[in-house]
Write a structure and sequence with these properties.
This protein folds into two domains: about 5-80, no CATH class; about 85-170, Beta Barrel (M1 Pyruvate Kinase, Domain 3), CATH 2.40.33.10. Helices cover about 20% and strands about 30% of the residues. It contains four helices and twelve strands. It has helices at about 5-15, 30-35, 50-70, 120-125; strands at about 20, 40-45, 75-80, 85, 95, 100-105, 115, 130-135, 140-145, 150-155, 160, 165-170. The longest helix has 17 residues, at about 50-70.
């Protein structure tokens, strides 16, 4: 048995899978082929970026490559899903540990130390003591009080807050659809 055949057999029996995210730097047929020959089992497409037409081109490239390989590369489409985000800020805000900061669902609430969030059920879904993470966990807030359209929070981990940052509500069941228009 030659070395190339043995390596191919080992790859087939491997339980661990190698997942590669395909994006602008890796979407050419040549690079996808290099990734596959290097051991990629799954090509991940982040559907939050790009459009359906550009993703379809990549899918076709992978399918064409699969005709030539002795181990097919699976395609994983990571859907965008619903997003909770901060609104637009006139300028970035520096949040220090221990500071009081307000999170509001009222777009016209323009208090200096507050940010609007695009999730209308925020006030009802959270309770005192719950956490709000912002910008992939760089900023963490704790809910201290609930008001009609806003939450009074304490900054647990500070940082610079900008516009349109991702919000996560750990352990909270949100009232958002699993699929968005872009996911269909």
């Amino acid at each position: 048995m030659d070395k190339q055949n043995t390596a191919s057999q080992r790859r087939t029996f491997r339980q661990t899978k190698i997942v590669c995210t395909i994006g602008p730097a890796t979407e050419s047929s040549e690079v996808i082929g290099q990734l596959a020959r290097a051991g990629m089992n799954v090509a991940r497409l982040n559907m939050s970026h790009g459009d359906h037409k550009s993703h379809l081109k990549v899918i076709r490239r992978i399918k064409n490559l699969n005709k030539k390989l002795n181990h097919p590369v699976a395609i994983l489409m990571d859907l965008q899903g619903p997003e909770i985000r901060t609104g637009e800020l006139k300028e970035n805000l520096n949040l220090g540990v221990g500071e009081i900061f307000y999170v509001t669902v009222a777009p016209d609430d323009t208090e200096e130390r507050s940010v609007h969030v695009n999730y209308e059920h925020l006030i009802n879904d959270l309770k005192i003591g719950d956490r709000i993470t912002v910008d992939s966990g760089l900023i963490n807030l704790e809910v201290l009080e609930q008001h009609e359209h806003r939450l009074r929070c304490r900054v647990l981990e500070g940082g610079t807050l900008g516009s349109r940052k991702h919000i996560n509500l750990p352990g909270i069941r949100v009232k958002l659809p699993s699929l968005t228009e872009k996911d269909h």
